[in-house]
Amino acid sequence: MNETIDKGRRQLLTAATTLTGAVGVAFAAVPFLASWKPSARAKALGAPVEIDISKLEPGGMLKIEWRGKPVLVVHRTPEMIGRIGADDSLLADPGSNASRQPEYARNPERAIRPEYLVLLGVCTHLGCLPQNRFTPGASADGVLTASWPGGFFCPCHGSTFDLSGRVYAGVPAPTNLEIPPYSFADDNHIVIGLDPVKEA
Ligand code: FES
């Protein structure tokens, strides 16, 4: 995986330059808008967001917002990674052919590095936030049975997804949970909204 930071920085600088141009136009149009905040504007435009994952324990999940949508980052344990694939015959789109993800995340783990899953926390049925139900087996609330291998559960209409966010067949959600573009700035930081640098 070649993810040199320098090119990523160059892309960010290009984005920042573009943004500066846009802000300049805004100032010309509204000269007395003294409280303009480029960072807020950058966020609204969907600028990349960097996440510190150094404290994300194996088995844990964190949620941030990017472009107004929740992004979930899961630190999968080796045991969780080992469970991926066990239910492929029960999935609606195990190869992620009809689902949305960058090409570099179209694999069984749907990830650049198998230990980190990054996906939009937006159910592909009607947009609810899926819950993390990573523990296998029947759930205390009775909605998941003994055969549940762990994954995501959407409480709105009962759609279920595996530990890669791949949807089970026969539930309301039509496709797998979407993977946004992302890359690793280093071992402790993921940048949402920025693709990895391709090898020359
Ligand atoms: S919104 Fe998730 S199952 Fe309907």
Specify Rg, calculated over alpha carbons. Answer: 19 Å
* Shape label: globular
Q: Indicate the percent of residues in helices.
A: 10-25%
Q: Indicate the low-confidence ranges by residue numbers.
A: 1-38
CATH fold-level assignment of the largest domain = Rieske Iron-sulfur Protein
Q: What's the architecture of the largest domain in CATH terms?
A: 3-layer Sandwich
User: Whole-number average pLDDT?
Assistant: 84
Bound molecules: FE2/S2 (inorganic) cluster
Distance separating the two termini? 12 Å
Count of runs of 4 or more consecutive helical residues: 3
In short:
The protein is an alpha+beta fold.
Walk me through what this model shows.
- The protein is α+β, with helices and mostly antiparallel strands and 200 residues long.
- The chain folds into two domains: 1-47; 50-192, Rieske [2Fe-2S] iron-sulphur domain (Rieske Iron-sulfur Protein), CATH 2.102.10.10.
- It contains three helices and nine strands.
- The strands form three sheets. A three-stranded antiparallel beta sheet has the order 1-9-8, with no helix packed on it. A three-stranded antiparallel beta sheet has the order 2-3-4, with no helix packed on it.
- Strand 8 (182-186) and strand 9 form a beta hairpin.
- The longest helix has 25 residues, at 5-29.
- The radius of gyration is 19 Å and the shape is globular.
- The protein starts with a helix and ends in an 8-residue tail after the last strand.
- The structure holds FE2/S2 (inorganic) cluster.
